[in-house]
Automatic annotation (TrEMBL), chains A, B:
Portion annotated as DNA-binding: 41-60
Sequence ranges assigned to domain HTH tetR-type in this UniProt record: 18-78
Keyword DNA-binding part of the UniProt annotation: yes
Domain of life: Bacteria
Protein name in the entry: TetR family transcriptional regulator
Keyword annotations: DNA-binding
SUPFAM superfamilies, per database record: Homeodomain-like (SSF46689), Tetracyclin repressor-like, C-terminal domain (SSF48498)
Keyword DNA-binding among UniProt keywords: yes
């Protein structure tokens, strides 16, 4: 199972220290989203959270571990994607996966942590490693597990590539006319491609 | 025509100042590739080129203008993509576009400037604007001009999204098994999708 769901397992009920942890994680998420991994410092996170740097280290350890904890929280949407993809028939899995990803990027609340992940992973190997652990292990491999194909993981990654590229051009770099195109129109164009990658039933026939 | 091909038009033959300009551009390209836009400084570029910062400003102006000049040089590969895409029949344009992009990323020499563009454009609005001017205006709109479709620009951008996402997951973030998959196999899987986006002859049929 994911680390996200189990994050608080074994810990006592909500206390002052749990509040402090959450405040640090919220500050960390905001800092990493705005600045990316390299330009974010533990000191900056501590300052934004109104605590001493030593407390950040006490709760989370190194900057890498703070990042991983912050992004795991931020990456809860990935579980939503996974659930929506796994919950339904395979013959429209492409439409479900595409719609869920587009919805997450259209919503400003979920767009922020997604930007943190993209901006950090592109520029920093530590953040890229976290991306690989979270996205590959928790999302894509679970989707691949549902596919009846020997190259299921590659299929899931090629489908993800279409969606990552869509997010890059539409939401991050904002290339027109794609950035302003109607979301439903975009979903209608991309879903068959994602479906084709995942199940081979469309998108690869000549 | 592109600014790249015309870059030296009207300038005198190679002189000491042309050498200095080229040395500055080479240093700038290396700095932007490694650090991305925000962490690169004119002073750092000048130091790497062995010149005074004032000379960098004299030749190129602001940091944004240095970036644009460096990336235009770095972006010569985009013209290769455009030429290879435009030079041939439309019914295998997807294969040509995919192969050219994959070849550029497979080659370490051309991978560096492409990384500079991706890393900078994701983290900085100035660099994103340069990306939009270069990629949209010089590459995608020219490809769209060859397509006989009312939504040609959107088609070119959705095709580009598949290829940008492929580059992100395979070459930047290095998700497995995609990162280690055989290049020809990847081209064979992605080309029909790119073809489908561009011409609608494959990839969107149910």
């Amino acid at each position: 199972m994911s680390d996200i769901g189990a994050r608080r397992r074994g810990r006592p009920p909500r206390t002052e220290s749990a509040d402090t942890r959450d405040r640090i994680l919220t500050a960390a998420r905001a800092e990493f989203s705005e600045r990316g991994y390299e330009k974010t410092s533990v000191r900056g996170i501590a300052k934004a959270a109104g605590v001493d740097s030593a407390l950040v280290h006490h709760y989370f350890g190194t900057k890498e571990q703070v990042f991983e904890a912050a992004v795991e929280v931020a990456f809860a949407p990935a579980l939503k994607v996974r659930d929506s993809v796994l919950d339904g028939p395979l013959d429209n899995v492409g439409e479900r996966m595409t719609r869920t990803i587009v919805d997450l990027w259209e919503n400003p609340v979920t767009r922020t942590p997604l930007l943190a992940i993209v901006r950090s992973a592109v520029n920093n190997e530590t953040a890229a490693a976290v991306f690989r652990r979270l996205v590959s292990a928790q999302l894509l491999r679970r989707i691949a597990g549902e596919l009846d194909a020997p190259d299921a993981e590659l299929r899931a990654e090629l489908a993800a590539a279409q969606l990552v590229g869509l997010a890059m051009l539409r939401y991050v770099i904002k290339v027109e006319p794609l950035a302003s195109a109607d979301a439903e129109h975009v979903i209608a164009r991309v879903a068959p491609v994602v479906q084709g990658h995942l199940t081979g039933r469309t998108g690869t026939a000549a």
